[in-house]
Structure formats: structure tokens, C-alpha cells
């Protein structure tokens, strides 16, 4: 059994974090039994440290930093944090399940993920407030403090309006257009990055668009707009991933 540590939200039995979605999609695609252990933002550091996970980074003061997602594979006694490392571990440990990094593509898919992340620069300000509204009260208090400490300004100051909002939204669409070109080179409008089977690159892309769909809401103008971009590719991708959205 795998224990999957995820961030609790105000949405019933639902997560928001795109990084957590990467791991949840991976587990569901592989069909590996697991259960979710929900943590508040302010519980993550002490809980993962106490449970013996390795830190995923360092704070500015040099102290260890712990992040989710994380898994504890109780059958092997192994604990892994970071969605990419988790996917690699699951591929290696459960070889009879669908491969997330098939055909020695780990390096290429890591490079694709880096490229995809650069396409999200203009998106972040649009998502901060919608995501914040869907956190628990405890999560909101932590998020507000964290954003202030990280950026030196209040959460509400990230909201874009007027011409700036129009410009940055268009910048986001154009940046994602480059990712659409990569998919188009594989063939058609309904293929995955490697053709007919899901791999890590698809999981990364689907995780972030699922994050935006949940943050904005199905009926929002923002999501309706995204769902039409690039001949509807991203909406169709989420439809293909729909059977892997179970929260166990």
C-alpha cells in the first residue's frame, strides 16, 4: 500500500496542486493501490521531517525545506518526495504497470517539462486569487503569509486588470501555442506527446490544465476560453485523463 501525502483544500475530497496531480495521475494510470493522507500547508514541514522524508530543497537561511507531493511505499519501506522522482520510483518498483517514462525518454521528458514550465509565466497572476479562494481557512492564512514573504506584497496585488490583463492572457495563450506545436508534430489533434500512450509530458500538461479548470471553474469565461485554444487540444487532453482523476 502507498500512502500519498497531499494538500487539503476546501473542495470536497479534491486537490488543487498541479504537482500533486502529477503524482495522483501517475498512481491512477498505473493502477497502484494507495490512500491519501491530507495535510494543511502549515503541517507539511514538520510532518515530512518527522516521518523521515528527505528534504526537497533549502530555505534562504540554509535550513531544510520539505514539499508535497510525497509517498510512503509501506510494502518496501521507501519514502519519496517530488513528483518526478516519485514517477521514476514507481516505474522502477512496479515494472508490470504502464510506463511513465517509456523507451529511455526520461531525459527528453524532463527537458519538455522545463520548456512547458516556461510557458506558464504569464498564467500565474491569473490563478493566485481563484486558488486562494478554494483553500481551507487555515490554508488561506498560510498562503497569504507565504506570498507576502516570497514576493513582498499582498496577495490581492497580483490581480491583473484592463489592458495588462488582456496582454498577459494573450501572452499565456501564445506561449502555450509552442507546446501545441510539439504535440502537432507527433500527429493529429488527439494524440499524446508520444503518440497513442500517456507519458510524463502528458501528465505534466494535464496536471496544470486540470489545476486551472478547478481554480477558475468549469463555467468561467477563463476556462471556456482555454478550452477552445489550439483547436480544443487541452480540453480534449483533460477528457482523456478524466478516468484517472479518482481521489482515493
UniProtKB/TrEMBL annotation:
Alphabetized PROSITE patterns for the sequence: GST_NTER
One Pfam entry name: GST_C_7
> Which CDD domains does UniProt cross-reference here?
GST_C_family (cd00299)
Protein origin, superkingdom: Eukaryota
UniProt domain GST N-terminal: residue ranges: 7-98
Record-stated family? Belongs to the GST superfamily.
Q: What is this protein called?
A: GST N-terminal domain-containing protein
Q: Which organism is it from?
A: Agrocybe pediades
Amino acid at each position: 500500500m502507498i500512502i500519498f501525502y497531499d494538500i487539503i483544500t476546501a473542495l470536497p475530497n479534491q486537490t488543487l496542486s498541479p504537482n500533486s496531480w502529477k503524482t495522483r495521475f501517475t498512481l491512477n494510470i498505473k493502477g497502484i493501490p494507495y490512500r491519501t493522507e491530507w495535510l494543511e500547508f502549515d503541517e507539511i514541514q514538520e510532518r515530512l521531517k518527522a516521518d523521515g522524508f528527505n528534504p526537497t530543497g533549502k530555505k534562504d537561511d540554509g535550513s531544510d525545506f520539505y514539499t508535497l507531493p510525497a509517498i510512503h511505499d509501506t510494502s518496501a519501506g521507501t519514502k519519496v518526495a517530488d513528483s518526478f522522482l516519485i514517477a521514476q520510483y514507481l516505474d522502477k518498483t512496479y515494472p508490470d504497470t504502464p510506463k511513465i517514462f517509456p523507451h529511455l525518454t526520461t531525459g527528453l521528458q524532463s527537458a519538455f517539462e522545463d520548456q512547458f514550465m516556461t510557458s506558464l509565466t504569464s498564467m500565474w497572476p491569473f490563478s493566485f486569487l481563484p486558488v486562494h479562494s478554494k483553500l481551507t481557512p487555515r490554508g488561506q492564512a498560510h498562503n497569504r503569509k507565504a506570498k507576502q514573504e516570497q514576493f513582498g506584497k499582498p496577495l490581492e496585488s497580483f490581480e491583473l486588470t484592463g489592458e495588462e490583463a488582456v496582454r498577459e492572457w494573450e501572452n499565456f495563450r501564445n506561449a502555450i501555442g509552442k507546446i501545441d506545436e510539439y504535440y502537432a508534430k507527433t500527429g493529429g489533434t488527439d494524440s499524446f506527446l508520444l503518440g497513442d500512450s500517456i507519458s510524463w509530458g502528458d501528465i505534466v500538461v494535464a496536471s496544470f490544465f486540470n489545476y486551472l479548470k478547478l481554480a477558475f471553474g468549469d463555467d468561467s469565461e477563463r476556462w471556456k476560453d482555454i478550452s477552445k485554444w489550439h483547436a480544443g487540444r487541452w480540453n480534449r487532453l483533460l477528457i482523456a485523463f478524466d478516468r484517472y482523476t479518482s481521489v482515493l
